[in-house]
Design goal:
Length: 138
């Protein structure tokens, strides 16, 4: 016997989403003192990269509540890009400090120093993409 068809106009059931996760449903974890930064931020590694065979090392969603920071730090032979999705704060990039806001894309070059502080009164939400190692390019 075949399943009954829904009545015209009846809501259809949601399809099962087996490979989809939702960042707002318990995936963010607390990270205290990230790279020597201040306070506790929240983060989720959306794409771990390990074993994927692609040059993308990881993609993280990060939330910096007011008064927290990712401390200034350096990476090796990779490029890490910050994409500011919401909020505003103070970015440190190779000794220069400047304001970043929603929509800003900040590439952090190989071996460069970078950090981000939330000196505002709302969360900063950003995506962090790391590509590498680059094999001396950059």
């Amino acid at each position: 016997m075949s399943p009954a068809l829904p009545e015209p106009g009846a809501p259809r059931p949601e399809p099962v989403r087996t490979r989809v996760t939702n960042l707002y449903e318990g995936l963010l974890r607390d990270v205290t003192g990230d790279h020597g930064g201040t306070g506790t931020i929240r983060a989720h590694r959306a794409y771990p990269g390990a074993g994927a065979g692609a040059p993308v090392a990881f993609i993280d969603l990060v939330v910096l509540p007011p008064g927290t920071s990712i401390g200034p730090h350096q990476h090796a032979d990779d490029e890490e890009t910050y994409v500011i999705l919401s909020g505003r704060g103070r970015m440190t990039l190779d000794g220069e400090e400047f304001t970043v806001r929603a929509g800003d894309v900040v590439p952090n070059r190989p071996h460069g120093e970078h950090g981000l502080a939330n000196d505002g009164d709302e969360d900063i939400t950003l995506l962090v993409f790391e590509v590498g190692p680059l094999g001396g390019a950059g």
